[in-house]
């Protein structure tokens, strides 16, 4: 039942924004408010559950990538950047802005988590140590990757341009790791 409630919560949010009532949610589910409150005491508890589940799954998926001995370091870096957590459809700019205004504690937690990525930083540091990544300021590199990844939160842009979130992440990773110039770029730069 809790999973069903979470899915309905996300659907309600996607359709109507974050300002709906527990009555609206119970109606969407076709259950009584009492049944809803037996599972979750408030909207905040549901929000916290979504955030907890998302962050836990994100960490678990990343850990599986890092611990996979069959992957090379470049493959681990690429796969770590494109990890999509459960309920990723919940995270878009519109919802985050509403969270910031109406649920500042939840927004603050999400914002903090979205701007730190210790596992990826460890992979990048290893890449610098082993020479597969240029020696550069790791904090600036992390900010570049995080900010590039966070543009996928602009769901309206991607929907409007018929680009899936997975495709957008893959393109972002490709540009970050390989650049956007073709091999003909030597002619342009004179090298």
Automatic annotation (TrEMBL):
Q: Which domain of life is it from?
A: Bacteria
Check the record and name the Gene3D superfamilies matching this protein. Answer: Homeodomain-like, Tetracycline Repressor, domain 2
On whether Secreted is a keyword of this UniProt record, the answer is no
What protein name does the entry list?
Transcriptional regulator
Organism encoding this protein: Lysinibacillus contaminans
| Location of the HTH tetR-type domain | 1-58
DNA-binding region residues: the ranges are: 21-40
**What Pfam families does the record point to?**
TetR_N (PF00440)
Q: Does the keyword DNA-binding apply?
A: yes
Which InterPro entries does the entry link to?
Homeodomain-like_sf (IPR009057), HTH-type_Tx_Regulator (IPR050624), HTH_TetR (IPR001647), Tet_transcr_reg_TetR-rel_C_sf (IPR036271)
* Keywords assigned by UniProt, alphabetized: DNA-binding, Repressor
